[in-house]
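ingest -> fold -> write
write: protein_1
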Amino acid sequence: MKIGFVGLGKMGGNMVERLINDGHEIVVFNLTKPEIDLAVSKGAIGTVSLEDLVNKLPDRKVIWLMVPSGKPVDENIDILLKLLKKNDIIIDGGNSKWKDTQMRSAKTSGKGIFYIDCGTSGGIWGLKNGYSLMTGGDKSAVDFVYPIFKSLAPEGGYTYCGESGAGHFVKMVHNGIEYGMMQSFAEGFEIMEKSPFNLDLKSIASGWRYGSVVRSWLLELAVLAFNEDPKLEKIKDWVDDSGEGKWTVEAAMELNVPANVITTSLFNRFRSRQEESFAGKVLAALRNEFGGHNVVKK
């Protein structure tokens, strides 16, 4: 297929390359030129604006957005709605909030334009291994662009989830589960790191990959991390979040689901960003006040 692709960041650029490698013709646009030039060197068709991109596409236009969630998505949609016509298709492959996706779909459908949400997982390894894709939206439009999904996903890695918003909802929950799994591994490795034994964490992580009930791709990544830095002394214990963990917890509260592990893992990420915990100071002060217990003063 010949499609437009907007957003050539770490994932977007690799996705374009994977599509080109599978025979698709990709017309690209990015806010900064070096990324466009790199994509062109891999076989893409470069453009200077969204209008230029749209003009280089065939009669029924398909445009994949791979831009940060929130305002950037809406800004691109507003421009594209002036350039596209009935039956054209916009695919949002970023980490958009599912409720925002539903509103955007309603907005574009008013113009006769289809809006597909595609939750995309695979990170920087997707170029080689493929991406797990979770789509939502009108089934006829999804079927029309299926060749794109088939090229991006490994065999068995594509799922049509249902009506508009379903794909981004499922991807949101996927990321929430990911938070919990990562936190569990983190706590387990810290227990071993603090044990009285001189444990080789890389060796243990590597061994768990074979036959263990906790074997996973995350363990493979842990092996890579320990191989580069056995004691992880080169990085700080500061962990960001994409926002999807928060949205998963919000959804759990709305649906009355006790998502204890996911919620705790999210709060642990918040804690990692504090140089010093004020809550910890309050705990120490209260313990000192009622029991005369020692406090450590600066």
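write: protein_2
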Amino acid sequence: MKHAWEYDYEMFCEAVPVKNRTDLIQWDGLLEGKMLEEAAQMLENGKGAWKKPLPESKAPYSKMLGAISSMKNMGYDVETAELLIPKAFDAIEKDDLIRLQIINAQVFKALTEAPKISDHPYWSYTIYEDFEQYEKAVELPEYPDYHLPDDKKLFEQIHGGWLGEIIGSALGTAIEGFKSSRIWEIFGEITDYVKPPETLNDDITFELALLEAFCKKGFEITSEDIADQWVGYIPFAYTAEEVALNHLRSGIYPPQSGYLANPYREMIGAAMRAAVCGALAPGNPRKAAELAWKDGRISHHNNGILAEVFNAVIVSMAYVETDMQAILMKAMKAIPADSEFYSVLDFAYKACEQSDNYRQAYELCEAKYKEYNWVHTYPNLAAEVVAVYFAGNDFQKAMTILMMAGQDNDCTGGPIGHAYGVMLGSGALDSKFTEPLKDQLDTYVRTMESQSITSLSTKTLKAVIQYNTSGARALGSENASHSQ
């Protein structure tokens, strides 16, 4: 029997990106101002659920194959679901939408009821269920002498972070979903945008919702507070976030919204939206980690949440540290050594140590995690390790490495780009990356469809000052010094 990951990997290997594209992102009619949520959902649950081109890069993606393979990765017996795959493709070929809808439901039923494979490697690692359990297992860096810098310096770091993230996401959205070798074949080594950059994507969406919640309550916010903002501001989502959003609308809140009937719960969506957690807790990795945990459990579980914590801690440390490789090492210690996610980071780091260059190192990682869907956390966070290891403090080189790794590289370019932007400051980012953005951020978040990157940075600055100082601080007091 052909396994889901084999179908998926075959599609991934065969996909070829197109050079010299000038078309705009198409979000199922959204650009025409239509919130066709119901129609889009019907498309996703029909033929498009098995193979559909992404709105941004046009790479083919199978939501169904990804669901099945991800459950197998987490140690479940998915044979019943896999037996339905040929039947689904037969129904698609015969244009039998009624039968296909039934098969799709049967696949998700089989995944929900899939029994554990008791001797699967996944179960040999510790499963992390809550922040208290996590915190006892790690060494979180501390910076007791750190004080927020003056407003001008702090804004430069915050602004640099958002610019770095938006640049990384824009670089990646044009080429996400392709294998590394295909990107090399078509583009050679990427050092700039391969098409005019666009900011309309699903990566920053959830960060804006979290920021909105944070502005109201600071670090006292709960997962439920963030979830409420999802329901209010976010019209649609994909994979883990789509499942969670549907749960929330039905009154199923965290942690069940992240775990219940969610085969995508260890994919990259949580890690993708981690940067804002670090940005709101400058020099305080513990607060960044806790905020990331609160956010992650809305749609993810275990390793999926740990990946968000990892990226959040990296961004938080970038406000204090001056060496990205040192940040990487400390962030790895912030992940429990007995988790499967740590084993991924460790494998990637050792691949770097034994390789002469980043391409050789990532090829080892790509081969190791080929059974994981390209939206999964593991091959992508391995790429982050490779990028920081070989790029050092070079923002452009880090972005190049992440783009050349392929996979879901807008979701890696974003948070890692944010960290570099914070550490280096906005003035250090090359104008070839920043000027084409025109200080503009377009989203599909309700009431936030268009804003300037500067205004987003200012909003973040105000939130950071309000909730990261021991007393009141007015904007403009540039010589003030405050402890956390």
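write: annotation protein_2
The chain has a mean pLDDT of 92.
The longest strand covers residues 440-442.
pipeline exit 0
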